[in-house]
Amino acid sequence: MKFKIYTLLFLLFTLISCSQKDTFQLLSPDKDLGIYVSNLNNRCSFSLIYKGDTLVNPSALGLQVMDTKFTENVSLSDFSEKQFDETWTTINGKQPTVRNHYNEYSIKVETVNNPQKFYTIIFRLYDDGFAYRYSLTTKAASDSLLINKELTNINFNQDFTYWATNGEHHNLGPITRSEKEFENVIPPVVLQFSKKNFIAIHEAEILEFAPFTVNATTIDHSFSFNIDYSKRNTSFKTSWRAFMLGDEAGDLVESDLLVNLNEPCKIEDPSWVKPGKSLWDWRVWGYKAPDGYEYALNTESHKRLIDFASENNIQYLLIDADWYGEEFNENSDPTSAREGINIEECMEYALSKQVGIILYLNDVGAKKFGLERVLKQFSDWGAIGVKYGFMTGSQEDKVKQTRRVVELCAKYKLMVNFHDYPIPPSGDRRTYPNLVTKEFCHAQADAMRSYFPETAVNQVLINMIAGPIDATNGWFDLNNAHSRVRVFEEIPGTVVAEVAKLITNYSGWMVLPDSPEAYRKKDDLFECVRHMPAQFDSFKVLGAELDEFVSVARKSGNNWFVGSLTNRKARSITLDLSFLPNGKNYEATIYEDAEGSHFLKNKESYRVRKELVDSESELNIHLAPGGGNAIYFKDVTIAK
């Protein structure tokens, strides 16, 4: 047992205060994480201890179902536990394989006055976090069962700073919990208690109920959850409330807890699911090439993009909105193309160049002309994927429609990228790996505005906890992009930072927003993008600090990439290269901001240099204000 003495004293006190059968100890496999579920004075509560430190003091745990509050006047019984350990292969993961190792516990919670009113709380404890959910059986369900409220109130042991996602705006934070109130904070929420103590809160396996938000409306150290449930008359389980723990901010985004809380892959043969890099026509409209050609929404422009993709190790072309008519016009039919676009010809040309086509689909067109009919037509044309945009309806409607879209896309062997959320990623890509990414961030130049460098840093450490994001990075024409039809504001940042974002951001589709000609003008820099694989083999945070900087290493076969980003401040970073395999030599091609680079004043200057390194080396890199750094490590080991 690794707990400190005072942890044992805490447990002893709990045992004395409650009857034995109403106090339960739950432990992670390594026993560093302990949850204590108690029923003191018939009130259900839980506490959390991690690595010997009490993080959560006794806190109410439960739901209000109809008029019954399951946090008071209840008893606990039917305690059970089991261990589970497996390793599974990912299709679209941060790592090729994932270990799913946990201890699972279930506890029946029933009212003292009416034992027919009950539910089961299921806990799963991992070495890097835990989750719980509620299960209600038909025996306990009525014809119109309604969960009114989540009564859980998490009383953290001390004050903390937190950050959270914020739609298509810069993320919330840093916020001192005891000093400011917020009612509807959208997860993931990242909490920092000390320099070496972080927690992230999110949901996993969001299948039928609307996602929760975090409530921080009292001036203390607590969080509660806002939920919006509909009525049920059959057995059901809620989404998992998930908590990831770590010593560093980067530990949270490296965690596989969310995917492990989802069911295994339901696609019998998912070999057709292939992540990759994609060009994108939407932001290129209006770009004037050196040969006088102006890009527009037509097949000729698409063929130029396909040619560049084919020649530069880019697997896909995303044809975005308006290709079948005005996207919000209910008469725009997504089973036929508008004037100027020959979709069959485009598909045939792309096939001849071994480039896949992704087609945009708006919720309006899907519902008016039949979702399955439209997806079948896309598949018959030869499309490999769908970008689904602007889903309408209630939050619960969006949850169910999202799953329906994903399942039907799987039926027709189509990958899918959701635009404008519509609900947070929740590890569901394990069950349906064709769900390759979601916007779930402020994609650069989206919402008709640009974001600043600190947003790029925090998206890696906050939004990506939920899953892969589509941030549409890789701008090269930073000085003039805002003169185009679909770019509305000047884009802050340096061109090297744009390359670094392609490494720091984990996404099933790496959507490149610029024109072929803009990339050709800086071909020595674009060489780094050309070397990037369709899918990386790993994701490791080398160093990070919220609001400040982040460095991420990604593996590609025998080679490696490292991307680093800073906020508006220039900084120097020393990279420890011990993540490289011992005994191997690498040629490091370093793409860096030039002297005088600046995210507003000098965005497109850069330089490229090379060094020979190995696992014992250190690299000192400099990042300009709002800038970045990208490194390609090529294995040059001479075989003996």
How do the strands and helices of this protein lay out in sequence?
Layout: H1 5-17, E1 23-27, E2 33-40, E3 43-50, E4 53-60, E5 63-65, E6 68-69, E7 74-89, E8 97-111, E9 118-126, E10 129-136, E11 145-150, E12 153-155, E13 161-165, E14 172-176, E15 182-194, E16 197-204, E17 213-216, E18 222-226, E19 231-232, E20 236-237, E21 240-246, H2 249-254, H3 257-260, E22 276-280, H4 299-311, E23 316-319, H5 343-352, E24 356-362, H6 363-369, H7 371-381, E25 385-389, H8 395-411, E26 415-418, E27 435-438, H9 453-461, H10 463-466, H11 495-504, E28 509-512, H12 516-521, H13 523-531, E29 540-545, E30 549-556, E31 559-566, E32 571-576, E33 586-593, E34 606-613, E35 618-623, E36 628-635
Parallel strand pairs: 22-23, 22-28, 23-24, 24-25, 25-26, 26-27
Antiparallel strand pairs: 1-2, 2-3, 3-4, 5-6, 5-11, 7-8, 8-9, 9-10, 10-20, 10-21, 11-19, 12-18, 13-14, 13-15, 15-16, 15-17, 16-21, 17-18, 29-30, 30-31, 31-36, 32-35, 33-34, 33-36
